[in-house]
Write a structure and sequence with these properties.
The complex is a heterodimer of chains A (303) and B (139).
Chain A: H1 10-18, H2 33-39, E1 57-60, E2 70-73, E3 76-79, E4 85-86, H3 98-108, H4 123-131, E5 154-158, E6 161-166, E7 178-183, E8 202-208, E9 211-217, E10 238-246, E11 249-257, E12 266-267, E13 271-275
Antiparallel strand pairs in A: 1-5, 1-13, 2-3, 3-4, 5-6, 6-7, 8-9, 9-10, 10-11, 11-12, 11-13
Chain B: H1 8-11, H2 14-23, H3 32-35, E1 36-52, E2 59-65, E3 71-77, H4 81-86, E4 102-110, E5 116-123, E6 129-131
Parallel strand pairs in B: 3-5
Antiparallel strand pairs in B: 1-2, 1-4, 2-3, 4-5, 5-6
The chains are: A alpha+beta (303), B alpha+beta (139).
Chain lengths: 303, 139
């Protein structure tokens, strides 16, 4: 947040909030959570032959920004942890110039209250990552990583394997297409020392009642935990994702434990995806990701 | 963030304003003003050299002769491909662009002085105009 005018003063922050436009950085192929939730029809949860819920389907995710609990929609912004509405100011009223409006947009995206708590020695590093978009791997066509990647766009469930598909994103992000194969056959994790560190780690699933729990270790330290904020992590990160299907709603939530950098485990805000109502729908082909801009970027301004 | 010129009648209706403001949002994955000058609009006419349907932004490259007769290449960053499709720029045989078309592009100049820009509007020779993503003043 170091590029905002008046950084570090409450007064400036208060003024900036008054200028916030109603931002809507909807990603391609994603629906805004609130509207879709209201329109979703009630349906029974389909069960697989093994008696567990069947998570298979194409899932239209909610806001990309929700891990820290900010939801930005047509009616304004909301802190999804507390339910508090965040005042926004319509840009159309002509307050502020274009530069101010872009900066105000950047500010509202950081206003979710559910943030990971870092050891004090890492606060400067977090701030540095946040203020320098050139260091963000998901601006350079890398994988978003877990848990930043959020809700899968498609799940294919078989008795002993879950296949999770995440199309690459354009527009606000620049991420590559990712798949994860999650065994649910009862196997245990490999020894961490035997795993090569990767973007998505070694994920293993099991059922906790009717909730699918994916336990993942073996990460590299290249990804961030959320879209903005500079929330980095280390290679000893342990992520537990919980996927619960209730009819045509899929709720996803992840808990991040990284004792090397975090003071305590951090649980993301719940994100709800809606089943694509068309039973014949197919996931659209994601476009290849090729980043061309950063050679021409002359400031480190980040939104 | 797109800014719209709207009438006083609409300004008097706050809920309408919010809906309008969010309708045309176009975000780049980087900060627009980190790369482009939001106060410097440029207009370039040339022939389409290539179209690239890629994430995070599609690109259009056009060629024109500079004052010395040398061919100059301009690359304009466009919105995400989905936005372009919604704007009516899809297949060549459905009114989309194709290499060789002469177009006039208006957009923001790059701050580094390179022949790149942030596209706001394409004019076709047949008079069609596509405004893509954002107003001519930047966000």
């Amino acid at each position: 947040m170091s590029n905002y005018p008046g950084r570090g003063t409450m007064l400036a922050a208060t003024v900036a909030i008054g200028l916030l436009p109603a931002a809507a950085p909807a990603q391609e192929g994603q629906q805004r959570g609130g509207d879709a939730l209201k329109q979703a029809k009630v349906m029974p949860t389909p069960m697989a032959s093994d008696g567990h819920p069947d998570l298979s389907g194409i899932w239209n995710g909610g806001s990309q920004l929700a891990n820290i609990g900010i939801e930005i929609g047509p009616d304004g912004a909301r802190d999804t942890s507390s339910g508090t509405a965040i005042p926004v100011f319509p840009a159309a009223a002509g307050v502020g110039n274009d530069s101010d409006i872009e900066r105000a947009n950047a500010l509202v995206r950081r206003m979710g209250s559910n943030k990971p708590l870092y050891m004090p020695e890492y606060w400067a590093r977090v701030q540095n990552f946040d203020s320098n978009s050139n260091d963000d791997p998901a601006y350079h066509c890398m994988a978003a990583g877990v848990p930043r990647i959020g809700v899968p766009s498609q799940i294919v469930q078989t008795p002993k394997l879950l296949v999770l598909l995440y199309p690459g994103q354009g527009g606000l992000l620049a991420t590559q297409t990712v798949f994860r194969t999650i065994p649910t056959d009862g196997r245990k994790h490999s020894d961490l020392d035997d795993l090569d560190p990767t973007w998505n780690g070694e994920g293993i699933g099991h059922w906790d009642g009717d909730t699918m729990v994916i336990d993942t270790i073996g990460f590299n330290s290249s990804s961030f935990l959320d879209q903005v904020g500079g929330y980095f992590h280390g290679e000893n990160m342990h992520v537990v994702e919980r996927l619960h299907r209730d009819g045509n709603k899929l709720t996803w939530q992840a808990t991040v434990d990284d004792p090397d950098v975090l003071l305590k485990p951090w649980t993301t805000t719940k994100r709800v995806a809606i089943l694509n109502p068309d039973p014949n729908a197919l996931l659209p082909e994601p476009l290849p990701c090729s980043e061309r801009d950063f050679d021409h970027v002359v400031t480190k301004e980040h939104h | 963030m797109a800014r719209f010129k709207i009438s006083n009648a609409i300004l008097g209706r706050p809920l309408m304003i919010l809906a309008l403001v969010t309708a045309g949002t176009a975000f780049a994955h980087h900060s627009v003003q980190a790369e482009f000058d939001v106060n410097k609009e440029i207009t370039v006419t040339g022939t389409v050299a290539k179209l690239e349907w890629i994430n995070p932004h599609s690109y259009i490259t056009i060629e024109r002769k500079d004052t010395s007769g040398k061919t100059e290449r301009w690359a304009f960053e466009m919105a995400a491909p989905g936005v372009l499709r919604k704007a009516g720029l899809s297949r060549e045989d459905r009114g989309g662009l194709k290499p060789g078309d002469t177009v006039t592009i208006t957009g923001l100049a790059a701050k580094d002085g390179s022949t790149t820009g942030f596209l706001h509007e394409i004019k076709f020779p047949d008079g069609r105009v596509f405004k893509i993503g954002a107003a001519a003043n930047g966000n």
